Structure formats: C-alpha cells, structure tokens
C-alpha cells in the first residue's frame, strides 16, 4: 500500500464493518498548479500522465480500480445489471467493486444499507439534487436489496461548498419550488442588499430529500470545499482546478 494515507479522510458514520470508505483531498499527488496535487479528474486540463499517476497512487490503496463515471449533473444511476458510464450515481452489491464520485464543490453522498450488503454513491450538485438523483439512488439500492424491510439505508454527506458561501440566484430557488416537494425554509437565505440572491444550504437540501424517502441515519455535512483551500479543490473558488474523489466499497477483508 502506498504511503499516501495523509491525503485521505475517513468518514465517520457508524457503517457496518463490511463497508469501507475514503475521501481523497487535494494533497499527496504529482499534479502541478492549479491542479496541485492529487487531481483525479481526467476531464480538466491537467496533464494526462499526471492524472494517471494520481489514480495509480489511489489504486494502490484500493481492492480494485474505481468505477469512474462521466458525471453530467443528471439523475441516471449506474447499476450492476445496466452499468452506465455516463451517470451521476452508482450502486452495487458486489464485494470489492469500488464506487467513486468526483467533485469540487458539488455534494458527494455515500450510502449503505445497515446489513452492509448494498452500497451507493451519488453526485448531488444542485441540479441533480433538485431533479431527484438521491431518490433514484435509494430506489435502486432497495431493488438490489430485494426491497428488504427492516434494513434501513444510511448516508454520509461528503465535502461540498458550505452554506455560508454557496450563493445562488432566483432560478435555483424556483427550480426547487417548481419540483413540487417541500424543502426547509432555511435552505435558502436571502442575501441582504442582493435582490434575487440567496445563500443555499446544499447539506440541508440533501438531508430533506433523503429523509423524505426514509433515509434517517444521515451523517457528515461539516466541510466547506470553498473555504478549506488547503484540503479541497473548489471550482467556485478557483475556476481552473482539479477534482477529489469520495469512494465506497464492500469488503470482506476490512483491511483498510
């Protein structure tokens, strides 16, 4: 195993011992500015050889190569019976299959059932979150679990842009209103002196959507990619930047 553990975060969420997770930071890789240094995104303008080297470093700490999705801010879910590479969420019940979500301000959500037999990962930017990417992910996980009753799903909200920073326009508020589902009033706080501008709480919006489909064990949601510049890439902060990854897999060895 490569000695890059200092570049990783370990989610704390009380998941079953069969569930393994890690979140990379921007540290511990080979890319140069503005992608310094552990950039995992091959769709930014970083050198391809640097991205490959960074992914190799990460792979040395995993049981298999992660399933890298082409994320498009949509609601499609890739699943074992129909593996889609262009999707914004992915589920599996296969041991040692590593699910990966790349972000740089959007919200990564990792999910597992409490039996530790089914997992999911979702890319929840505001567009996908509004359109139902989390609901779709939970639904596909329940299908994989054969609709098992008494087997709740739990979720961990990974690093995203924080509620004190995430400024949005009226169009975003309208999108959530027009979708027809209630959301907490505190999710959008009007900005004094900026008509039609709001501070959005993407963590609160995600919690609301997950709770609405019966996911009540929700953890995380305490980071801010924008303000924690030494740890995370942030598109809103830097524009040209890299991507970090949130990963989850089912492991019988529990070796990490």
Question: Could you give a quick summary of the protein structure above?
Answer:
The chain has 256 residues and is α+β, with helices and mostly antiparallel strands.
What keywords describe this structure?
21% helix; single chain; 256 residues; CNF1/YfiH-like putative cysteine hydrolases; 13 strands; 23% strand; alpha+beta; six-stranded mixed beta sheet
Q: How are the SSEs placed, and which strands pair?
A:
Blueprint: E1 8-9, E2 19-24, H1 48-59, E3 77-78, E4 89-92, E5 99-103, E6 107-113, E7 119-124, H2 126-131, H3 133-144, E8 153-157, E9 167-169, H4 170-179, E10 188-190, E11 197-200, H5 202-212, E12 217-220, H6 235-238, E13 244-250
Parallel strand pairs: 3-4, 8-12
Antiparallel strand pairs: 1-2, 2-13, 4-7, 5-13, 6-7, 6-8, 9-11, 10-11
Structure commentary:
The structure is a single chain. By secondary structure, this protein is α+β, with helices and mostly antiparallel strands. The chain has a single domain, classed as CNF1/YfiH-like putative cysteine hydrolases. Helices cover 21% and strands 23% of the residues. The chain is built from 6 helices and 13 strands. The strands form 3 sheets. Strands 3-4-7-6-8-12 form a 6-stranded mixed β-sheet. A 4-stranded antiparallel β-sheet has the order 1-2-13-5, with no helix packed on it. A 3-stranded antiparallel β-sheet has the order 9-11-10. A hairpin with a 5-residue loop joins strand 6 and strand 7 (119-124). The mean pLDDT is 94.
């Amino acid at each position: 195993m490569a000695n890059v553990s200092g570049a990783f975060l370990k989610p704390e969420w009380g998941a079953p011992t069969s569930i393994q997770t890690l979140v990379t930071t921007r540290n511990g890789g080979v890319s140069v500015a503005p992608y310094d240094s552990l950039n995992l995104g091959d769709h930014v303008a970083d050198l391809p050889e640097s991205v490959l080297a960074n992914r190799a470093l990460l792979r040395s700490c995993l049981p298999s190569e992660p399933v890298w999705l082409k994320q498009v801010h949509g609601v499609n879910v890739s699943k074992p019976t129909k593996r889609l590479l262009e999707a914004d969420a992915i589920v599996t019940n296969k041991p040692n299959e590593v699910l990966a979500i790349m972000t740089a301000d959007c919200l990564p959500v990792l999910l597992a059932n409490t039996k530790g037999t089914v997992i999911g990962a979702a890319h929840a930017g505001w567009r996908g979150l509004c359109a139902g990417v989390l609901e779709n992910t939970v639904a596909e996980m329940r299908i994989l679990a054969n609709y098992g009753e008494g087997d709740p799903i739990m979720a961990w909200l990974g690093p995203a842009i924080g509620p004190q920073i995430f400024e949005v326009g009226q169009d975003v508020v309208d999108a959530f209103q027009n979708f027809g589902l209630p959301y907490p009033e505190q999710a959008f706080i009007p900005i004094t002196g900026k008509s039609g501008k709001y501070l959005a709480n993407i963590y609160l919006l995600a919690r609301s959507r997950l709770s609405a489909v019966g996911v009540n064990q929700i953890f995380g949601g305490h980071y801010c990619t924008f303000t924690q510049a030494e740890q995370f890439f942030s598109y809103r902060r830097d524009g040209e930047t890299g991507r970090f990854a949130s990963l989850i897999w089912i492991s019988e060895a529990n070796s990490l």
